[in-house]
Write the structure tokens for this entry.
Amino acid sequence: MMLAAVIALAMLPLVALRGRTLLSFYATAITLDGMVAFIRNRGGYTFDEHLGLVALAVLHVAIFALFLARGRNVRFDATRAMLIGAIVYALAIPAMSVHPPDGDEEHYLLVTESLARDGDLDLRNQYATHPDVPQFPDDPKGRNGEQYSRHEPLLSLLLLPGWWLAGQRGAIAIVALFGVLLIRSTVRWMEDEGIDDATIRAVFPFFALAPPVLFFATRAWPEVPAAFFFVEAIRGIRAHRVQRWIPALLGLVFLKLRFVLVAIVLAGSLLFERRAKFARWQLIALIVILAPLLLMAVVAGNPLNVHRASELLPESPYRYVRGFFGLLTEGMSGIPFRAPFYLFGLFAIVRWRHTPRGFRIGVVASLLYLFYLLPRPEWFGGWAPPLRYVVFLMPVLALGAASMWSRISRGAIALVSAWTIGLVIHGLRYPWRHFHEFTGENPIGEWLSLQYGSDFSRLFPSFIRANEARWIGVAVVLLLIAIGLRRWKLDLAIPLFSIALAFGFAYGRRPGTTIELEDRHVKHEGGRLYPDPFTFMRTEYRGGWVLDAGHSATFLAQKGTYDLDFITGLGATIELGGHALEVRPDVRYQKVRVTIPESGPATLRCLRGAINVDRLERVHE
Amino acid sequence: MIRALLAIAASAWAGSVAVQHGTPIDQALPFLCALVALAGSRDATLLGVPLLILAENVFFEEQTRLLAIGIVMSGVMAITITRSAESGAPASRRLMPERPAPGWRAAGRRVLSRRDAGVPLALILLLRWIPFPQLWLREIALIVIALAIYEVLHRTPFATVVAVLTALATPAIPLRTFALPLAVLFVALLARFFNAPRLRWEWPSAVVIAFVALFFPWSGIMARAFPFFLRPVIEERPRLTLNYALNAGAKTAIDVPGDATALIVSGANVATLRRGARLGRIEPGGIEVRIGDAADWGYMRRDHFYGSHNPLPRDVAGRIRGWGYNAWIDGAGRIALPPGARTITVMGDASLPAGATLQVEAFELR
């Protein structure tokens, strides 16, 4: 495997680099390898070797991307981009496969297995042989007791040839194939929209070889095929090629029913494209939109599958605000932290008039979809790699970023590059961390909190579990999108970021004013997380840590008065700061005022009964 | 220019806020950040500043952290010396196209610019100014000579290497050691006078600079015992302290603990002896201890190095002491014990000069 990876990495530059540029690349790569080998052989450090190898491979690809963007002697087109993507995905699949299929992936693969072995969609025997795959009570049932998946079967059908050839790996290879096709389509689309070659070369790795596309193209999710169909549909509409957009739109809506919301707007845009053929085209579009609904009505008995019509009704305004700003800023699953390159796409939105028409069509087409996504509790993607529900939109944002490339701060590009490299290394080394409990913490915050014993997670904005940093995060991101990413003559993006980073570390080491007692920075001696890990719709619950008699939680705190939020059904006696406190049972959450006499580590003990402690909030007196 | 100054100031401030640990290298983080900004004329290399802050704050084990800081500085310096990913790339292809850098002009000709001189200046400061030198006037004089070498050799990457290595190798104590950089400058002037070809040697120069900058936290050792860094790091094992000092002809018998594997020895007042000079003998086995197996304990100290003729011991058992350009390793060497010996006799060689001793420091245990 290692040898194959080395050969693949050595071959990668041959696809696009030539002459002196190629030699320079090899010289750089060999220098890097030589230094790493020297440091490794010399020893005297403590470091995860596996992480080091992944980092080295990713750095090779990053250096290649740099040469691709800046080299003088480069051959690049959509087909070469496709080849580069294929090599990188082939390397990434084994790394990502360390973590078995998880979340909805299991279901897609289960349906594929059913199609391959039984030739049907009935999953009863699959569930019997895979008892670890969860079943949902509202999964569709057939007339004769058949048990169907709640997920649309098109992805499973598409995965079938791969499954026949090589089982699960083959099925994932099919998704990667769609990833490769997506790269080709997107590069062609950028060319069609008038983006120059140098910009496409610069933007291509951020889109194709970085999150979220990289992580979804190497696992069994429908998001990358959906992105491919979406791009093809827009390209077809832009080029007035009915033979392109109809199958693409069909693929999109059959892949996931939710994409009907995209198809409706996209089809609506036909009104402005060909007025003369309005009636015929509208009819075709209507058929395309209705087709999956009819199919679902026949198969599952409900045209909306497991969804309800009531889900289409507008929800409370705060839910929209939470979803929208969450996607913009959330530390666990938001764009700046999980796929920062697409901030440039958002930057393009605020310069609407200067963007290509394809970008505008793509953004407008997604609005209705986003309107229904944002208020849903799983707006951040649920139990999946981050940004799941907006992956299909990434090619559009990449086009927007490309159209603004010359206007974007070079410092910001450098920072985004470094952050993206870090994300890719982290994602490939620890693929299981793509699936994160919905706690509002992210892996960096958790890791730093654990190392320092101080609450670093509070520095990352969270709308999943609202924290104080969220509105500051919103302000910063909005400021960035409006003016901060712009290319100024006095570009101080990196020094300013460095100052923010340094203050972040300094501030993070201090105790916070709000202590979430289930978080990683709290040292728990006994007890358990509430709600239990993997609880369905976990974000809808109020999290906490359950302490039984004899259990304790130690955390860093400033001295002062705090409000302790808790719930107890049994009643409990707790001790904090040398004071014992009796709390009575109640079905509701309660609040009690406590004092921490000294700044530093404080311990909350449960002496009797059981208590679910949620948080301590400092009272400003 | 304003941008550069603001970047340097902001980077130094960020570094000062981010300091987390107590070694002089950690404490010098603001200085390191400022050096990155000084050397990094393009944004890509300025990334070294946040990377330094990260290294300081996410690596808790000292050696790993200092190595991480060294890697960042090494990467930054190696990239800046090559100026662009491929030499001669047109400005439009650069990540951050720049206008010609403002420079100091002499006789209507640009002599040195901040961007040009920033890299060798930053490198010399990196390698010699941590901790802050006591003889700072000499250090400034050395920088001037080094920059003159750099200018005379046409400001190429190779010129940077020559200037930086010359500065690194000059102890500056005593003052007469300035003969070295002056001699190099003289040779460079001759080369220029006779129109010798301009050597760029971009990639080899980058590799050399990367290597030198990698170990800047111990640049004193790099300057005075460079081969030390080419050897694998041997984790220090437990030692049983002995502390015997044997004059010429003196001897002592020592019981060997069962788990001892080697004897740690060094010399005192033997810095003027040359390689191969006898220090003593170990019986049984007739093991000769010579300069080369061990060295004068303090021969590598900056103040003493010029007068010393000792080489680095073959099997270094000395500990790293000090930081930056003041770093040095004591001259202890590791001598394998005679197999199966329960008692050994160690003798000071009869030829040892007056006042010189063989120091039997410790047994190294398994």
User: Anything to note?
Assistant: Chain A touches chain B through 46 residues (CB under 8 Å). Chain A is about 55% helix and 10% strand. The first strand of chain A starts at residue 514 and ends at 516. Residues 138 and 243 of chain A are 37 Å apart (CA to CA).
